[in-house]
Amino acid sequence: MEYRCGSPGFNVIRLLSGSAVALVIAPTVLLTMLSSAERGCPKGCRCEGKMVYCESQKLQEIPSSISAGCLGLSLRYNSLQKLKYNQFKGLNQLTWLYLDHNHISNIDENAFNGIRRL
């Protein structure tokens, strides 16, 4: 059977091919967006698995959108000045936390409540 560019069969195949590409790409984009939301990767930060890197962002506050499953958090080279009461509430899975190169001068005695594995 011969397919010409203008034949109905060719157009159907071409349309289905385009749809197949869209059907493959759309879920991939959606899954990427969902996994990013699940991780809770704050704007301007870089997330790799369960590690969150919010470095050199001039942050004065620790982002609140960090996932509870976060194992490592780097807040190096920011403008943090104090660590408040329950500052890391909900991040009880943390095993490492980098706070160097900030301007921290005040740490509440309960800032690290609930973090047992740090």
UniProtKB/TrEMBL annotation:
The chain crosses the membrane at residues 12-34. Residues 40-72 form the LRRNT domain. The gene is Lrrtm3. Keywords: Glycoprotein, Leucine-rich repeat, Membrane, Repeat, Signal, Transmembrane, Transmembrane helix. The keyword Repeat applies. Coiled coil: none annotated. This is Leucine rich repeat transmembrane neuronal 3. It comes from Jaculus jaculus (Lesser Egyptian jerboa). One of its GO terms (cellular component) is extracellular space.
